[in-house]
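FIELD: query
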Amino acid sequence: MSMTDPIADMLSRIRNAMTAGHDSLAVPASSVKQRIVEILQEEGYIDTYSRRHEGPQGFLDIKLKWHAGQPAIEGLRRVSRPGQRRYARCGDIPKVRNGLGIMIVSTSKGLMTDRAARKAGVGGELICSIW
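FIELD: result
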């Protein structure tokens, strides 16, 4: 069975692992998912990740970050979906929780955070928000 939205599946797996209190999880790998996980690590939302080459696709092993028994990620939401794409210009990219969270944006210069997109002066597709 084919999956229509693999990014939403990855975000749901992360949310479910945090709710269940797991320290780590594995998701099927792709280059877009790997870049999203890299951004999460750069911004301090996850501890580490590694790519495991197993089978035709491989897996991303993600180690979640916890602070005093609470997950570092309070919430995540898929913004642009296959049935309803959301795009924004540079100046129209919304701030997440008044700048306390991040929005991951797919631009012509690659995937980046909302702050980096505003600094680079590019807009694009609003992938997901994390806070």
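FIELD: remark
The CA atoms of residues 17 and 25 lie 7 Å apart.
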